What does this fold into?
Amino acid sequence: MKRLLTILIVLSLASGLVWAEMSAGQIMSKVMEVQSSSSSALDLKLSLIEPSGQTRERRIQTLSQTKNGLTSTLTVFLSPENVRNTRFLSLEKEDGKNEMWIYLPALKRSKRISSSEEGGSFMGSDFSYADMASTTYDENQAQHVLLEEETTRYVIQSIPYEKKTYGKTVSIIDKETFLPLQVEFFDLDGATLVKTLVTEQTDVANGKPIAKVLTMRTVSSGHATRLEMLQTRFDIPLNSAYFTQKFLETGRL
Amino acid sequence: MKRIAMLLLLGFILLPLYSFDFFAEQASRTISFNLESGVTLYRDKQFQQQADLSFAGEYNEERYRALAALTYDSAQNSLKATELSISLFFGEQTLKAGLFTHPWGSATTSHVVDVLQGRDLRRGLVDDLERMKRPTYMALFTSYGESSSLELVLKPGFTPSYLPTEGRYNLIPAGFASATFTEMDTHTLSSFEVGSRYRICLGSLDTGVLYYNGHYHEPGFTVTSLAPLSVDLTYTRYQLFGLETSLLMDSFTLALEGGFFLSEDSKGDDSGLYNSKIAYLAELSYTNPTNSAFVSVAYQGRYVFDFSTSASDVDYLASYDGKAYENTFIFVVEYPIMQEKLKARGALTYQAESEGYALLLGLSYALHDNLQVFGKATIYGALGDKSSLYKSWDTNDGVTIGMQAWF
It folds into this structure.
């Protein structure tokens, strides 16, 4: 019994040492790893909240698949009625850029979108297209600095090597789940706070910790967007035909 | 009343809802309504009230989709179908048949190769190209490759443009006001139309080639009697060899469309038929990456071969200022603000030969997810005295206010 206790204590200390020795880059890499999956299907509700409290809702479903390190994402808008069946396709290419298309049912046309529009508002929300893909940077995408370490969380500053949308982010990471609890997004000057993302509720889906409810608030306008995951499926078999021009234009496999 | 009751009945039969839903395990039905109501005050101090109820019912199963879209126009007291189609899906192929519109062309604000359907000008020029199209019966087969697609179109007959012969947007020249018109039957096998389009994505370049064997949607004519004036309307068959392409350059998109229309009157010696022509369009558009504001500048032109200056020749009658060529400039801007709740839109068309212009302005504000109020202004005119469609519609300048709801 004594031996068992000793082993447990040693293991526990060793484990603590491992975490303590993690660099900021490794922590952010772990954050990305925890949130990544070979495929996913998400049923989401977006609530656009005015500073006055008035709310508008959008319902979307997002399918995502990663093959050979390249991620393809399809987003379908289910409501409101005037944007229903709008479809958005993003294909990551080997040069790191994304090819993006949007299908607008009112025009019956698909239109290519510039990757520079990744910083643009996603469906009038406070999330940008880039935010919808990820709100944190991987180890090799930014210079990460551990600003603070508390009992239950890390505070990490990330300065992206390629400044497209933000000049800096400051993330608070939960030590247990490695989920970002809060992310502050700064303008390209690295000093002006632009938006704040807060994880309001976490959950476990298929044994995977997930941020179930998130709220992004734009500092200048006071406008906020609440993103709620209604249904989630991870690492499921997904037909590659979802991520094609055919599905984009017809909505069919 | 009967028609409204029929729409409502159809609606209840088709409840409940849904189309694409990854998490749903069964076939789905969707029903939606769009109600648009407004009043337009014209420059001649007349006003027109308008209320349109549009209904769309959609049924989806794994291998097919059925779609019915109807619009009830209260001012005309008419119910018209905007789409009645069935689509079959098998592998990389789709087959869609019925009454619908299908867009060709790569530009956003105007097209010269979007030839599959005619126009409906009963409400003049509106700020939505799709709403100005007249649906037509056709079968459309599409085969998709990894980054390409091939379309084949077959129309057993064809539906010409709807050109108003009375009312505010009347397009009949004054000299023909008392004429008796005899329409050609366009829904016969001899009026068939066929075409194909091949599109491919090459990096940032999307390009396509197309062929179409069809008819000019505007009628030519033959005078059969002078007193009283009697005219047979005819439609000119042509073959189109066209090209459409768009090149994405960061936030800018350059779109090019062009085509050679080889008329059945290739020598241009039949005054009742349209001659061969080339038509071309270049459009440069910009989308602001941060707020999705859209600006576009386009140039559109055409040149008619073997052009005749005879006053009775249809090419001359359809020309601007009696010229074989046409140069038109189009400027469009859309600016969304307040998290896309408020949208300002503007479009200006200037036709160089006739010096005519049309200015369309619009402002919409979303009161709720499915409810918006809007205001629109339309101004037609000409800088000089030359006659043109724009000048003849000068008195149709108007301001519209209204509401639109989706449910």
